[in-house]
Fold this sequence. Notes:
This protein has helices at about 10-15, 25-30, 30-45, and strands at about 60-70, 75-90. By secondary structure, it is of the alpha+beta class. It has 2 domains: about 10-45, no CATH class; about 50-95, Sandwich (Immunoglobulin-like). The longest helix is centred in the middle third of the chain and has 13 residues, at about 30-45. The radius of gyration is 23 Å and the shape is elongated. The two termini are about 25 Å apart.
Amino acid sequence: MDYGCPQFTDPSLLKNYIQEGGFNDELLKDLKKLKQLTNQATGVTSWRPPDIVHKKNEIYIDVIESVNVLFSAKGTILRSDVSGTIKLNSKLSGMP
Length: 96
């Protein structure tokens, strides 16, 4: 967690931290295991296999905006807002 936001949610990584039967003190004593857990938590992108290959390296970005305006009978603006979403389709090879 970083400021209350989860940084990774991959179950295989979380199993190293969440254990049944209480906390394992042996984990804190083994420096090699601690470094391995830190590397897994910060350096692994389990959501993307490294051997992805596309014919072309392309990125498609769609910005979709919606403008809502409420006018009175006299033509004055009573309420207005703009909302939007950004959709991204990445077709990049390897681990960009």
